[in-house]
Amino acid sequence: MYYSIRHLTKFSYASPVSESIMETRMRPRSDSNQRCLLFHLSVSPRCSVFSFRDHMGNHIHHFDIPGAHSQLVIVAEAVVEQQAPAALPDALPSSAWDDLDSEVERGDFWEMLLPSEFAKPTPLLQNLAAELEVRRKDDPLSVLRGLNEQLYRYFEYVPKSTRVDSPIDDALEARCGVCQDFAHIMISLVRPLGIPCRYVSGYLNSRSEDHNRSPETATHAWVEALLPGVGWVGFDPTNNLMAGERHIRTAIGRDYFDVPPTKGVFSGDSPSELSVAVRVAASTAPSALDEDQPIPADWAILVEKAQEPPRPTAASQTQQQQQ
C-alpha cells in the first residue's frame, strides 16, 4: 500500500518576532516494512534548510529565519510505501522471558529500559501497575497485548486534555489523555519488566470503518517493544491496535521529548498561536505530490543533502506541537 502525506504547521505571532530557529522531524523513516519514496519540506519565510540524522536514524531538518516575521509556515509532503508486518504467533514459547533477558544482555538497549523525561515511575503509576496486575507472567507478547487493551479501556481519549509538557500523572489522575499520554504510560509500565520499549511518532491512516479514537487530521504516537526472536513490535494503546500497515513512522525515541514534529525557539515577547493540519491518503500505486495545493514559488524548498546544521543562538521562547 502507498500513502501520500501532507502535514501543514503554522505559527502565527500577534506582533513580528525577530528570529525563529526550528527543527522538524517529519520525514518518514525508511526501515523494516516502510520506505519513504519522496519527501519535500517547504518553509515560509524563505530560508536555508539543513538535513541530518540523529543517533537513532531519525531525519532532522534545521532552519533559521533571522529576519522579522509575523508567521512561520511549514509544509511537509511525503509518499511512503508500506508493507504489512509479519504475522505474530498467538504467544511466545515458555522460554521467552529468559530469551529476552539474554537478548537484552547482549544488545545495547539501555536507553529504552531506563526512565526518561516523560516516561518515569510515579506513585500513581505504581498504583495503576498493581491494579492492572502488570508483571512478568505468561510470555512477553501476551503481557503486551493484554496491557495494550487494558490501557485502551482504562483511559478515555480526550483531545487537548493535556499539553506537550504534561507529566503522566495528569492523565493518570484524570483517567484521560491524548495519544502521547497513552504511549508514555505504556512505556513506563513496560520498561520495569525488563522489556525495551520506545516511543514512535508518526501518522495513522484512519478509515471510517475503523472507528479509531485518534483524529485523522493530527499526528499520532504509539510504542514499540522488543520481543525475543521477533524484533521491535508496535502497539497502539490509544486505539487498541497492533501497529500495522496503516501506522506510518516518522521518528523513534525514548519518549516525546526526543521526537516532537517541530521544536524551536523565537526571539521576542509576542504571543503565538499554532495551527496544524494533517492529511493521509491511501492508494494502490505511488502518487505525485499534491498538485491541487502547490507550494508558492517564493518559499524555501528543501533539497536533501547531509550537512552539519549551524550552531543555534540563544532565544527567548519555545515552540513545539503536541500529538
End-to-end distance, in Å?
A: 24 Å
SS summary, helix count: 5
Measured on Cα atoms, how large is the radius of gyration? 20 Å
Proportion of beta-strand residues? 35-45%
- CATH hierarchy: architecture of the largest domain: Roll
The total number of structural domains is 2
Q: What are the low-pLDDT stretches, counting only 5+ consecutive residues below 50? A: 302-316
CATH top level label of the largest domain: Alpha Beta
- Largest sheet properties: 5 strands, antiparallel
Globally, the shape reads globular
Helix content: 10-25%
- What name does CATH use for the topology of the largest domain? C8orf32 fold
> What's the total count of β strands?
17
Helix/strand-derived class? Answer: alpha+beta
Spatial ordering of strands, largest sheet: 15-1-6-3-16
